[in-house]
Amino acid sequence: MWHKSSYSNGDGGHCVEVADGVPGVVPVRDSKNPGGPVVTVTGTAWRAFVDSL
């Protein structure tokens, strides 16, 4: 299931979604383009990214 970032705004910009339930990776996509490409990163890399924000 995809979840939009709480930092995404309502006017169509800055929309990032992540999916849960995929073992070993975190899928990331642009919510404005749900049929577009998905980037997958390791859970460790995702945690480092989120912590740096």
Q: The biggest beta sheet, please?
A: 4 strands, antiparallel
**SS content category:** alpha+beta
How far apart are the first and last residues' alpha carbons, in Å? 23 Å
Mean pLDDT: 87
What Rg is obtained from the alpha carbons, in whole angstroms? 11 Å
- Please trace the helix and strand order, writing H or E for each element: EEEEH
Helix count? 1
Low-confidence stretches: none
Helix content range: 10-25%
Strand line-up in the sheet with most strands: 1-2-3-4
**Mass-distribution shape:** globular
Number of E-type strands: 4
Q: What fraction of the residues are assigned to beta strands by DSSP?
A: 25-35%
List keywords for this structure.
4-stranded antiparallel beta sheet, alpha+beta, 53 residues, 1 helix
Overview of this structure, please?
- This protein has 53 residues and is α+β, with helices and mostly antiparallel strands.
- The chain has one helix and four strands; from the N terminus they run E-E-E-E-H.
- Strands 1-2-3-4 form a four-stranded antiparallel β-sheet.
- A hairpin with an 8-residue loop joins strand 3 (25-30) and strand 4 (39-42).
- The longest helix is centred in the last third of the chain and has 10 residues, at 43-52.
- The chain is globular, with a radius of gyration of 11 Å.
- It starts with a strand and ends with a helix.
- The model has no long low-confidence stretch (mean pLDDT 87).
